[in-house]
Amino acid sequence: MVRAALVERRRGCGEQLLRAFAEARPDLLNALTLLLGSRDDAQDAAQEAFLKCWRKRDGVGGIYNLRAWIFRVGLNSGRDLRRNVWRQRSRPLLDREPTIERPAPSPNEELIHRETLDRLRAALQQLRPEERDVFLLRQNTDRTYDEIARLRRAPIGTVKTQMRAALQKLRKVLQEAPEG
Predict the structure, then answer these.
(1) Angle in degrees, 0-180, between the axes of helices 39-55 and 66-83, rounded to the nearest 10
(2) Domain 2-87, classified CATH 1.10.1740, yes or no
(3) What is the DSSP letter of 85?
(4) What are 130-145's pLDDT values in tens digits?
(5) Integer Cα distance of 163 and 160 in angstroms
(6) Looking at domain 106-175, does it have CATH number 2.30.30.90?
(7) How many of the other CB atoms lie within 10 Å of CB of 16?
């Protein structure tokens, strides 16, 4: 009797987790793609996050904000993947030129554009992790500050301060004249 109740509870928690993960997955993939620079790596990190969440599914009933928990596990999986030495050999998407079709720029415009992207990539890497997370969530998922605060389990004022700091640092880098 007790075993049957445990099996039923576990099934219910598993179904709840599956629904929550399916709902959060598109936004999580977008955030992970920006964090990792590769859609393939983002898929790997999301899959690893799901597995980590699945292993803890028995405790899902006690989690206040399941979506925030999934995002936290997902972003941690992304950071773990980014630190992986094997993956450091490949260049992330942020190190590649964008594939947007546009008229061919002049050599001077192309050089300025490449230098700007390099400075921006470097600036993104220099942000504190919490600033980078808030920036990526806001810019990549169209979430409001309230939603990001709930996801991060942080006061809205803290989230806004982190976003402002990230934007100020990025603006400063983009306004600086390239060294040459």
Answers:
(1) 120
(2) yes
(3) T
(4) 888 888 778 776 678 8
(5) 5
(6) no
(7) 15
Let me know the angle formed at the C-alpha of 169 by 72 and 68, rounded to the nearest 5 degrees.
15
Q: Which two tokens stand for residue 109?
A: 């415009």
Instruction: Give buried/exposed letters for 39-70 (b at 16+ CB in 10 A, else e).
Output: eebbebbbebbbeebeeebeebeebeebbbbb
3-state secondary structure of 134: helix
Q: What are the boundaries of each domain within the chain?
A: 2-87, 106-175
pLDDT digits (tens, 9 = 90+) for 97-143: 545 566 777 888 888 877 877 777 777 788 888 888 888 778 776 67
Q: What percent of the chain has pLDDT over 90?
A: 6
Q: Which residue's entry shows tokens 């600086």?
A: 176
Please give the helix or strand (H or E) that residue 158 lies within, else none: helix 156-175
Helices and strands per DSSP (H, E), number in the chain = 7, 0
Residue type, 156: I
Domain 2-87 and domain 106-175, same fold? Reply is no
118 or 7: which leads in pLDDT: 118
